[in-house]
Sequence to fold (176 residues):
Amino acid sequence: MEEKINETLIVLACGDITEESTDAIVNAANERLAGGAGVDGAIHRAGGPAIMAECRQIGGCPTGQAVITTGGNLKAKYVIHTVGPIHRGGTKNEAKLLQSAYRESLKIALQNNLQSISFPAISTGVYSYPIDEAAHLALTTCIDFARGNTGIKVIRHILFDSRVYKTFAEEFKKLI
Ligand code: ADP
Fold:
């Protein structure tokens, strides 16, 4: 499913983000940039040690912020590592932090003149964000960014399982 917003095509697809050939893929990292389970582990496994070497040099990334490294052996040239919030009941500023994780990743892409970027469903795995709320925040943030900024031609949301894809698709239909 896809829709053009201003000059940016927003695409939802099922798949494995490590196979994306956009300029950058986004990693749902942790604050220490230490690697881990889920999409983080998959990206480091597929991209090889050059990504972790840069992560160690950078040292860390606060929740809601983003940093950029090489894409190593991936088809994508860069990995943008962002840290989504752990969902702890919804009263700990989680929504603002999740929006910020998407927005800061898009800002880094723009600053680096990247034209295409692929996101996973940040915080919806180990970090337990309810998928419908995460989908709403992810999509509204990307749509607002596309309305306010030009330069990024394609934003892809790569959803690993069909339940998450379905939730994102239902939310996207309401927003466009
Ligand atoms: P977080 O700690 O931010 O919750 P996770 O990696 O645990 O990060 O999960 C985030 C989302 O990424 C989940 O929806 C999970 O199903 C998905 N995911 C896991 N592996 C991949 C992959 N290879 N490509 C795309 N998405 C993935």
Observations:
- Residues 101 and 119 are 11 Å apart (CA to CA).
- The helical segments are 38-47, 49-58, 94-111, 131-148, 162-175.
- Residues 94-111 form the longest helix (18 residues).
